[in-house]
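Posting for a labmate who doesn't have an account.
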Amino acid sequence: MVASKSPDPYSAKHPFPNFFSFWRKAKKPNEDSPPWTRLYRRFTLKELRLATDNFGLKIGQDSHYSVYKGFINGGFNETVAIKMYDNNSLISHRYFLSEMELPWKRDHPNVLSLIGYCIQGSQRYTVFEYMPHGTLHGQLHSKNDSKTLLSWKKRLEICIGAARGIEFLHSGNPLIIHRAIKPSNILLDNNWFAKISDFNFSKMVPTRLSDSDSHVSTDICGTLGYIDPEYIVSGLLTLKSDVYSFGVVLFEVLSARKPMERSILEEQGINVMQWWRQCVEDDRVGDIMDPRMKVEVAPDCLKAYADIAYKCSNERGSERPSMADVVKRLELILLFQECFEADLPFSPSWLASIAPSPKKNEPLSGVDFQDSNIFVSDYDSEELLRD
């Protein structure tokens, strides 16, 4: 079989690479099979063993699965990441189904593409596109001196890509609430395109509901430091819960500090989120910025970025912007930064509509936000490096 020439994988007309359709040429399943069995290629265990040299190159591990790098030759050559789930865990089986049962979510350049799967007895595997630059978490916090420090412009581009991916999830039918937005679930391909990954805890919401009614009642789970506090109080998961988590990511990208670091708590008696927000309120955004970044940043650009992070991390969901608004505003900030670096005219007044002056939140009833341990979680996985 000769594959047709693939279009630009990131073009508007072709939102995801054509070669993934090549892998979805699976054996015809029986009529009782789940729908996803007809959408993705079913690999044999022999094929996966061959691709990974008998699972010899582990590149990541979680309490419920391990990730291996593999190389598949089948009409063209492609490097892949293969996730092998713990076959003795019901939770692992649920994770596998969560990844497989939302097939439409793959059709966007800023969402990690699922290539196929394997079922061998009680053992489950999923096969994904490989991300050479690993995770955003790894790029921000790696102690490996050989890693290239992310420039301010590159950080903006990554944030825009991640925001586009989340916006796509929030605009589908049904809507998807990711529920685990954090730097370790934002992967980076060879061109530094950001891709949202890990749908183990994602929830679907019918689009027939209005934005204010779009929620799911569910048990509280998430990762320490990124969980929406309103979700903790009410148990209602909303689209704005992802917006809050993304606001934490924006602050983390700017400062290269993790939201649960204890240094700020020990030095100033407040947690990292409170420190971030206090700096914005006091017009001390420069105190937040990662000191390792050498490139000059336009002051108005930096302030506008911090204002967006501040609004996204508002304790009240109704006060947070939509992801569509976040994308537009981040794109404008990037344009401003590019003009600044090229010494081209750009009026700071264009950024005036991005966000009003920050106002302090009134604490939500039932939650003590002075407690740095408020963010409790039943899911606190380590990042999975793909490099």
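Reply:
Got it, the structure tokens are right above this. Residues 136-351 form a domain with the Transferase(Phosphotransferase); domain 1 fold (CATH 1.10.510.10).
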